[in-house]
Write the structure tokens for this entry.
Amino acid sequence: MRASVVVIGSGMAGAHLAYTLALKGVDVLVLEAGPRRDRASNVRTFYDNPVKGPQSPYPSVASAPHPEDGKYDDFYVQGGADKFIGAYLRLYGGTSWHWTGFADRLRPADFRMKSDYGVAEDWPIDYQSLVGFYEEAEKRWGVAGDPAFDWGAPRGETPYQMPPIPHSYMDHQVIKALDKLGLHAGRFSHARNSEVFDSRPACCGNNTCVPICPIGAKYDASVHAEKAEAAGARFITDSLVTFIELAADGNVSRVKVRRPDGETFWVEGDVFALCCHAIENPRLLLNSKQDGAQNGVANSSGAVGRYLLTQANQDVWAMMPEPVYPYRGPQQTGGLLELRDGEFRSEYAAAGTSFMNSGWSGNSDATGLARKLIAKGMTGAELARQVNHQVARHLRLNSSAEVLPDWNNRIELADVADSSGVPKPKVTFRMDDYTRNGLAKAMEVNRQIFSAMAASDVESNDPYLSNAIIGGTARMGTDPKTSVVDTDLVAHDHRNLYILGSSAHVTAPVNAPSLTIAALAIRAAGRMINNLGK
């Protein structure tokens, strides 16, 4: 097979890249390791699966495995002080199937951490250079937002595409406590329809956004994968790329692909774009050692797999004196404005606190409580009454803090292979004190909120790594000795290889990375089109 542009991965980066190129008439072939599954099949799998975690609607396949709920140690070889539980999918449309749907730009300060706060690193691009691409990504997604809350990323005169998703009843009860404390709340911006948009329905409050929106009100990248196909891009699923081959001139010449039945074939191209998220991108690059690339493709700097990013979370939960009625609307509709940015970031991490509309433990809240009550001998109508009575009073506050980029936090190839025959990812990660101190500040505030609400049975867990945020491992930079790609996301070592997605991100601040992934993919497509024209 051959194409002008070969895209590896059909998630947020790959879908937007393919769509932008196809609109310009570029010959695009997208190779997706996982299967193509429709929404109805995914919803049915979720309903039938007794496990209700983020991966539960999406079965891992032996030919292209991904992490499974409760089995992260089976997928990752853990080598660090902190357990890594990054969750991602290999599937048509990618990991965006089970994202929260937050539609946030990064803040200007997020690109200038070193300059503004003396920590982490500056990005080699700034906020202003992405504004136009942010606007294009928002138009494609459709964003429901409150113009009063830009979450630190100035929008100018650019309106949101839809009215905001309203605060839940539970949010309003939290806000009453915030008023007593002099704190403030805002409504999140969502890639989730508040009215019909792009032929997709408005959100009706199923409260299963993670792991799946059953009606398609929440945007996911399968939307633009389908649009790319309609515009002429070719998609081949169940096609795992296992090796990147270099030509004598140092450019990529072709990639090796394996089908579930073991058949292999090669795909040639003029330009190649690696869009496999922040674990699979370095796995493939490191697995492609050859003459001229003894440390793996695009790895003359040794930075491939390095500077692994995530966030760290901590929860506080309690029993409210009166019902607050979680499980109404999306899982997160409002959050605390304080602690997300400021001069304090020179000393401790920014933390974003969300008021969780999903009880104490998300989709497992009622089932977990029911098991405890059944173990005490409770059954029938009394069991149902007690579940309703208690869950209605469950409130949880979740705080997510940024983690500093660290060379020693990394992905390597393990000595043992997974079911597809590719070496498993070995992860070494250590949470820094900067992050722990940021979470400690957030926990102080969260306990004050519960106190103001006269909560009882207040409990918390220890800080833990996020399973929703994965970044770094092929970072962007201007120095080929310390980075993997340049500001156009072109590999320093191979000028026809683009590496897209959050693996190129320099930091992982509290604003979600997904909109930046889409914006950078659209930006890269423009540069790619110009280069193909030349």
In short: The chain has a mean pLDDT of 97. Residues 382 and 532 are 68 Å apart (CA to CA).
